[in-house]
Amino acid sequence: MKPIKTLFVAMTCMSMTACSSPTLEQRVDQLYDGMSRAERVAQLRSIYISALLTPEGKIDEAKCKELIPDGIGHISQFAMDLGMSPDEQRDRVARLQKWLIENTPNHIPALVHEEALSGVNALDATVYPQQIGMACTWNTELAEKKARLSATALRAIGGTLALSPMVDVVRDPSFNRLEESYGEDGYLSAAMGVAFVNGIQHRGNLHEGVAACTKHFLGYGGGADAPETELMEDILLPHEAIIRLVGSQVVMTGYHTFNGTKCVANKWLQQDLLRKYVGFNGLIVSDYGSIPQIDEALSPLELCVAAMNAGNEVDFPTGDIYANIPEALEKGLISEDVLEKAVKHVLMLKAKLGLLDNTARLYSNGHIEFDTDEERATSYRLATQSIVLLKNGNIEGDDKPILPLTAETLSRLGGRVFLTGPNANSMWALAGDYTFQAMRYFWKGKEESPLHPKYVFLKEGMEQKMPQGGSLLYSRGCDWTDVPETVMEKGGDPRVAEQKIIDNRMVDSHEPADWDEALRMARQCDVIIAAMGENVMLSGENRDRTKLTLPGRQEEYVNALVATGKPVVLIAFGGRAQVISGLAKKCAAVLQAWYPGEEGGNAVADILFGNVSPSGKLCVSYPAVEIHEPVCYNYGLEKDHRIAWPFGYGLSYASFKYGNMQMDREVPTDTESFNLSVDVKNTGNVDADEVVQIYVSPIDSASRLKPIQLQGFARISLKAGEKQTVRFRLFPEQLGYFEGGHWNIAPGRYRVKVATSSQDIRQEQEIVLTGKRHVKKLREHYLSEVVKQ
């Protein structure tokens, strides 16, 4: 690759220190001073790469000269847009960057962005479990590794910015984008979000990683209208922790309204809260098409002024509204200072990523291999750890639970396994929203092959892993739905408005669903595996369902399977918890599999057959009834009758005994930390993982703390019979609360609990904070630490 010709080559040595290298700030200042107004505005705009291609798919220089003569700040969602192989995608990006460097006044490359929620949103890229499943792993180390692998893959094809992670704290079980979140808890969302950003940004080495964009600021999916304490202590927590602990580079606002004003035009939200309170000094960008949604009565010029003056700096995805910046400047509607700050934030991010260096690494050379063995192995491990065992009952007349279906169990039952259901033999049981296949199907109506990358369906996984003496029969039995069940949500990504057919579109399974045939086969078998749930058209952005029960006639079908008298193992796939508690009472076992990614079939099969013990723990309160309002475990200590399985819940094939909890009993409010340890023993007969959870509750009636709050966790692996001492370092700030614009650590009595779920407390002790109330503008410690042995 030829060296980039930038103004930086000609920079003279700065005064102060003879011939010292200029700082990034000095380089950006000098570059900005040498730019025309048109070049500056171009840095705040974006474009789809497809707009710059010939009909044959090559970069069209004539279109480049016409559409981006002064350069361009950003290339939008390029990999999904192109839909090409990794090498082809890289080549298009390389050609475009070459054109920008050689043909625009200041030779500035573009920031190229893509989604990376469950892997890079690109053809052939590894598909990991959807984010709600990731949260159920409670495995920050593996989550960081997954994000690091995604960053490496994205960098290889020319991407430098990931529009991920989504760290909205979502407490409405029916929210259509719940699957993209880490669930209902601010602490767990913060911990998983910090891991994601650490991975995607290669722990601050932005020349190797890519920039993270945390979204959506603030309260998208619920919480924007929450009381101040909940907003500042819970909803803001993931954003605040990610920005302050690991330096997330970009923040995206939400489509929604905050205190009566759309977030993208909300000055208090972007400037007072995000910049002044949290201290964010990076780049603020709009969600796709959110600026035109500020107010339909406003002209493009007025929309531009509203967004710019509120603090929004980049207009995604095409920058059409920000084309009005020159007119706004001429009329004095926005100031040169506003423009300067925004452009310099874009340039600073490019400088941090190394894009403005003479030897910038804009993409990889040579052949690019996606979905490597390491990536597939990581996807598989995450899938096995994301699956939650909700019920594991005994078969009538047998004192052993039905799962796992080992060779011994199958021999005892008879050995004939019947697999059925719409998600038994389908990619749509595995691919969540914002994967390449889902995005292409929803936005472009194109059904991509399940071979790029290779998806392992449940049927294939069970066939390959069936224990000796077992046999598998299969019939689909029923479809997801017989009629459309989603309603096109108003608002959000404006591209939805162009897809009026969405209300009438259903996924084609490409195989028959013979109800009668399936029930005949079910009666001939010894155990039934029913793979039910949602698909890409029933869960995801702008896809609202009016109910949370299983779609279509699926519940009726499972009841018919139960009526055969054979034990039924229900597996629920999808992007949110579904109301299945009535069915669960009738079924022998229940697994929640979410959207487990490309290795989902192998992961579910290994859990069914006992090759892996299930270890996922719920990141949401699993509803027993229809709930269309906020719900969270930390609203109270008493069991909520509307909840079937509580936050943090998940069964194992092993059992665990907790004991010998040790903790500092008296700690000054201004001390740095205190210690906790507990012994955990695997008392089962199989090796298994356990998630040790730490909760805090107030004892004093005057305390302002929530009734119960997660404040730490550790995922540990124990062999059968093994005992381990798990040690934590916690911080008094974790017992604090927000009031009066500050974080307060007050003296008082608190109860620290060691648990296997928010409702299953195994050990607890009292701690007393002594001294005076300690006040801080911001917390310094957000997450407890697991002390390595």
TrEMBL record:
GO terms for biological process: carbohydrate metabolic process. Transmembrane segments: none annotated. GO terms for molecular function: hydrolase activity, hydrolyzing O-glycosyl compounds. Residues 690-758 form the Fibronectin type III-like domain. InterPro entries: Cellulose_deg_GH3 (IPR050288), Fn3-like (IPR026891), GH (IPR017853), Glyco_hydro_3_C (IPR002772), Glyco_hydro_3_C_sf (IPR036881), Glyco_hydro_3_N (IPR001764), Glyco_hydro_3_N_sf (IPR036962), Ig-like_fold (IPR013783). Keywords: Hydrolase. The keyword Hydrolase applies. PANTHER family: BETA-GLUCOSIDASE. Belongs to the glycosyl hydrolase 3 family. This is Glycoside hydrolase family 3 C-terminal domain-containing protein. It comes from Marseilla massiliensis.
